[in-house]
Design brief:
heterodimer, A: about 110 residues, mainly beta, six-stranded mixed β-sheet, five-stranded antiparallel β-sheet, about 0% helix, about 60% strand, B: about 120 residues, seven-stranded mixed β-sheet, four-stranded antiparallel β-sheet, 11 strands, globular
Chain lengths: ~110, ~120
Amino acid sequence: GIQVEQSPPDLILQEGANSTLRCNFSDSVNNLQWFHQNPWGQLINLFYIPSGTKQNGRLSATTVATERYSLLYISSSQTTDSGVYFCAVGSNYKLTFGKGTLLTVNP
Amino acid sequence: DAGITQSPRYKITETGRQVTLMCHQTWSHSYMFWYRQDLGHGLRLIYYSAAADITDKGEVPDGYVVSRSKTENFPLTLESATRSQTSVYFCASSTIIQGAKTEAFFGQGTRLTVV
């Protein structure tokens, strides 16, 4: 099956800092999503981005499908950005998740 | 409310008991999924369903049973719960749009503890 690797596994930032999270995957995919799992455990959809670049406020994401990686950018981080960020990839409807990046934003 | 809801949110059960986790979605999405989340493993697919009465195994199906008699419901049953099934369970749904888009949306999760 598809292998998904996320880096870094842990990241600690001061409020206001920028960060880049990476997701590498081992095979061609036509579905890639980024999720934020908040401290209450809820999985929140951030981006559906099998290719290209998207932006939503302080967050943006880029997927280079031919090179099998995706990047999630967080700018001017806030304490509410804390949590685990998951990349999930798949062919059509089934998703394989990476192990996530645990982000801690300190005030 | 529209969306995907799971019940119960928290459950404690004893080893050997049967327990059913419920999942209901109001979008009429074709596909529904059950994942479990464990420390160090991320989320892993247990079972999925492409439509009513069509189900198939995922990565970790042993010890679980699913059914889908109606499009909107996808219950997950642990026939004889074991401590290794202590986990957080997530239900999800997605649909295919224009032959390509298959964005998945997740329920709030059910935290199951088997004692």
